[in-house]
Structure formats: structure tokens, C-alpha cells
């Protein structure tokens, strides 16, 4: 009889990440309460917390004596002084960098011009990170990890398979950026990354099954199922924006026709408005036209809302998530899109499934992609933290190279 071997290192890594996030979400929690909430035995918790304290990730504080009998209470907190994580959201026209402490608290935000030329985009991202570090008076040594979120297909190995709106194929953009930033870098599809951020930092912290849909230049989806993002065997699952809504319909950036993205994305809505002679150039212009009762804007948004609702109905019938979260431009346009979307949704979703599904707007708003990058960097950091962090680290050792 063959015994099943237990991967103790993997279990320890999973438990470490679990305890880290409980402490992060419950500052000042006691070790006893941590054991109750996590279900991990006290001896294992003691070992993990000691390791986290030694590496400067967790800080213990003891309550001042009260004169009462019993041991003083020891509170556990994530030590934000350990260093910084950078989240990079890449779009064709702009690259946004959010700098956060290791507990996920954003402390700097920088936007630089984007580029569809890979080397130029990598250099611009590096300059954005450098500017963010300078804004908090931190040096290169303070940067513990970087996460990149971009609109496109990303393999399990972290390579860009195809990013139609950027024009990139089979590209290792993380390696290009690594030549400038000497720290761990993790790359992911922007909406999958945003789904992780929604679970770690957003309103879906206690939801283990939800679908995250984000719009901007395109429409992307993140299937957060059973407590993690579902990537499929090659890492490419979740391309909600390329569901076929209209056979032989509008051309999509992916090269096909009739995709949801071609009807519901910010770019598609603006293109349709322009084709009808409207002057809106961004989401603010769309919202302004809607608020003013512009008939052209109303008609275009009505059509987009119809297809959004139809796409959501297909998702609900197939996946049956507890929640659907709208992010990015879909979150901003929700007041304009949802009236038509809800009619279409209820007309096409199975009622028995639909009644248990909640439709919400993400609180992350336009921060979804860069905060998704922060979430990726945090995952990378927890998977392989440096040996020693904390106040002894030279956080002022000059700007990044």
C-alpha cells in the first residue's frame, strides 16, 4: 500500500498566507482569537507567527498592565514598515502605478503615458514605480514585489499570449520590466488580478464564489470559484468579453465578430456614439449626455445594457455564482446600463438560479487594475518572502536604477 505524501512546505505556505490575511483584516487580533478564527492549532500558529515576526512582517504589542490578574494581552499587527508593493495597471494609453504597504494600504499613485511598444511600456512602468517610491521618500531596497495587470490572455507561466488592444503576442513583459526592477514580478490578466483584489481589499472578502466583470478598452472576466481564481489548464479561462452575442456582428479587437466586448466596452460605446455623430470622448462625456437626457446616448446605452444583461444571464445559467461584481468603466456606467441590463437579465436567466445571485458594483472603481497588481505582488511576497525585513532594511538606499 502506497502512502500519500504530504507536502508540508505547501501546507505551511497556505497556513502562513491565511494567518497573514486574518491579521491584516483584524488589526490587533490576539493569538488565541487567531486560532479560533483560522481553525489552525495554537502550536502551528505560534511557529508561523514567530517566523513572521522574525522576518519583520508581523509586530507584537503588549497591552499596558491594568492591575488585574492574568497575563497581559498580546496584539498582532502587520508591520507596514517592512516595505512596499507596487501594482501596475497597463492600458494602451496609460500606465498606472499604485504603491502600497504590505498590508495592502495604498500610499502613492502615479500615472504615466502608455505605449503599445513593449520596451517603451516596460520603461514607462519602471519610471512610474520610481516616481511612486520617490513620492514616499523610499529607495529601491524598500520595494518587495511588483504585480502587473494587463488586458489580455496570460499563461500560467506569466507570459502574454495575446493582448489585442495592445497588439502584443507571445511576450514576456515581466522579464523586460525585471531588467529595470530587481525584485520579484508577477503578471496576470487585469480582470483576474482585479478579482483577487476584490476578494482581498474590496467588498467580497467573505465571498468565495463570484464573477468579476471589468470594462475599459475591453471587457474581461475573473471567475473567483471556491476561494481562488479559476484559470483553466492553460491559465486562459474567463474570457467573458468574447462570448458571442450576435453571430457575424460587430468586429472585435480579438479578430472575431459579435463578441460582448464589441457592444459593452467603453471603447465600443464611444465608437458607436461617434458613428452616430455624438461628441462624447470618455466616460464622463457619456454620463453627462445621459444625465442631460441625450436621445443618442440613451439609445446606445440601452443597446449596450441589453447585451450586458444577456451576457450576465448566460454566465448565471452556467456558473451560478453567489455574486456578480461590475468593475472599471462598467461600475461607473452602471446607473446608465443597469435599467436595460436588468430587464434583459431577468428575461434570460433561469429564475431558480437568478434568485440567489447578487449583482453589485465594485468599491475599487478605477483602482481595480493597479490594486489587482498589488494583490499579485502580495501573493508573490507571501509565497517567497525575503529572509529579513523590517526597520533594519535600508529603505532610503537611493532611487531605483
UniProtKB/TrEMBL annotation:
Please report which protein family the annotation says this sequence is part of: Belongs to the ROK (NagC/XylR) family.
- Residues of the HTH marR-type domain: 20-63
Provide the species name.
Acidiphilium rubrum
Q: Which PANTHER family match?
A: BIFUNCTIONAL UDP-N-ACETYLGLUCOSAMINE 2-EPIMERASE_N-ACETYLMANNOSAMINE KINASE (PTHR18964:SF149), ROK (REPRESSOR, ORF, KINASE) FAMILY (PTHR18964)
Domain of life, per the record?
Answer: Bacteria
Q: Which Gene3D superfamilies match?
A: 3.30.420.40, Winged helix-like DNA-binding domain superfamily/Winged helix DNA-binding domain
Lineage, highest ranks first: Bacteria, Pseudomonadati, Pseudomonadota, Alphaproteobacteria, Acetobacterales
MF-aspect GO terms: DNA-binding transcription factor activity
Name this polypeptide is given: Transcriptional regulator, MarR family
Q: Which InterPro entries match?
A: ATPase_NBD (IPR043129), HTH_MarR-typ (IPR000835), ROK (IPR000600), WH-like_DNA-bd_sf (IPR036388), WH_DNA-bd_sf (IPR036390)
Amino acid at each position: 500500500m502506497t502512502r500519500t505524501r504530504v507536502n508540508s512546505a505547501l501546507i505551511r505556505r497556505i497556513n502562513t498566507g491565511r494567518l497573514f490575511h486574518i491579521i491584516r483584516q483584524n488589526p490587533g487580533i490576539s493569538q488565541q482569537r487567531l486560532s479560533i478564527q483560522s481553525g489552525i492549532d495554537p502550536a502551528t500558529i505560534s511557529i508561523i507567527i514567530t517566523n513572521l515576526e522574525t522576518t519583520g512582517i508581523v509586530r507584537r504589542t503588549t497591552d499596558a498592565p491594568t492591575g488585574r490578574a492574568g497575563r497581559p494581552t498580546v496584539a498582532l499587527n502587520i508591520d507596514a514598515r517592512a516595505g512596499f508593493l507596487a501594482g501596475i495597471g497597463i492600458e494602451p494609453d496609460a500606465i498606472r502605478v499604485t504603491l502600497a504597504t504590505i498590508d495592502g494600504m495604498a500610499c502613492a499613485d502615479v500615472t504615466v503615458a502608455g505605449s503599445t511598444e513593449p520596451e517603451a511600456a516596460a520603461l514607462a512602468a519602471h519610471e512610474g514605480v520610481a516616481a511612486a517610491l520617490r513620492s514616499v521618500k523610499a529607495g529601491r531596497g524598500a520595494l518587495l514585489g511588483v504585480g502587473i495587470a494587463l488586458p489580455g490572455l496570460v499563461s500560467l507561466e506569466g507570459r502574454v499570449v495575446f493582448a489585442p488592444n495592445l497588439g502584443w503576442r507571445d511576450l514576456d513583459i515581466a522579464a523586460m520590466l525585471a531588467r529595470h526592477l530587481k525584485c520579484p514580478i508577477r503578471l496576470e490578466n487585469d480582470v483576474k488580478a482585479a478579482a483577487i483584489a476584490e476578494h482581498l481589499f474590496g467588498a467580497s472578502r467573505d465571498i468565495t464564489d463570484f464573477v468579476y466583470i471589468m470594462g475599459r478598452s475591453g471587457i474581461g472576466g475573473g471567475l473567483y470559484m471556491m476561494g481562488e481564481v479559476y484559470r483553466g489548464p492553460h491559465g486562459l479561462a474567463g474570457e467573458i468579453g468574447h462570448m458571442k452575442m450576435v453571430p457575424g456582428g460587430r468586429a472585435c479587437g480579438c479578430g472575431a465578430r459579435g463578441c460582448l466586448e464589441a457592444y459593452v466596452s467603453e471603447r465600443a460605446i464611444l465608437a458607436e456614439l461617434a458613428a452616430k455623430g455624438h461628441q462624447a470622448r470618455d466616460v464622463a462625456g457619456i454620463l453627462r449626455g445621459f444625465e442631460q437626457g441625450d436621445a443618442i446616448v440613451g439609445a446606445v446605452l440601452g443597446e449596450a445594457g441589453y447585451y450586458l444583461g444577456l451576457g450576465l444571464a448566460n454566465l448565471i445559467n452556467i456558473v451560478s455564482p453567489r455574486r456578480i461584481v461590475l468593475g472599471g468603466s462598467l461600475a461607473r456606467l452602471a446607473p446608465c446600463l443597469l435599467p436595460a441590463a436588468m430587464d434583459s437579465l431577468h428575461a434570460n436567466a433561469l429564475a431558480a438560479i437568478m434568485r440567489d445571485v447578487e449583482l453589485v458594483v465594485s468599491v475599487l472603481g478605477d483602482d481595480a487594475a493597479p490594486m489587482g497588481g498589488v494583490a499579485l505582488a502580495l501573493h508573490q511576497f507571501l509565497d517567497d518572502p525575503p529572509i529579513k525585513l523590517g526597520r533594519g532594511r535600508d529603505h532610503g538606499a537611493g532611487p531605483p536604477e
